[in-house]
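Blinded run. Sample ID left blank on purpose so nobody reads anything into the name before looking at the predicted structure. Input follows.
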Amino acid sequence: MQIPLALGVQTGGSIIRPAAYCGTFAMKPTYNAISTSGQKIVSSTFDTIGFFARSIADLQLLADVFSLPDDEHPEKVCLGDISLALVKTPMWSHVGPGTIHAMHKTAAILQNHGIQVEEVSLPNEFGNADILTRLQNAIIDNETALAFHEEHCSHKDGLDVSIRNLVENHSKHADAEKEKREALEKYTHLRTLFDAIAAKYTVIIAPSAIDEAPVGLNDMGSPVFNTLWTVS
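Blinded prediction complete.
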């Protein structure tokens, strides 16, 4: 690894996913744990500054620099007292063989060390992958269109065509704000449901990418497994 430390901003999966593809350590902190002041915001609901590093110790260095406190100092826990939830999420239908193998191998290694591993499904209120993707897009597309409105007015030809389309379609879409508001209300409810699940376990493991990284530089892979955690 040529660069020992790096910063990134996750809107959908721009920290979790590339770290998984490259085999590096990464940390996407709790939303708004680090101020985005001075950073071009794409989505005020999702954008979260995080870290890439060579090791967990190096991640700790960055966490210290940004004064990220622990909720409480971790206590020593015997392996047999750890309860771990394996959450496939409603996006599991998108999974590839590499991720399936990694999840199964992880569970087997942990169980062989005496850790309690339980496969946990999210409640029906989370819906399926299509429902969650629509919720995410309702928020991100709306906020991205607003974030780039000024640039679109001043030099739209310099914007990527996907950004131009978002800005132009937003002005024609009378229900965009309503859809965003409903999506945010839904996510508020889902956070409450998930907090109740998380309180039961020491650790939660979920997929970070559909499969191994796609070949070439023209495809960054899908963030379908990431965005749910970005807003949670």
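Unblinding after everyone has recorded impressions. The chain has a mean pLDDT of 90.
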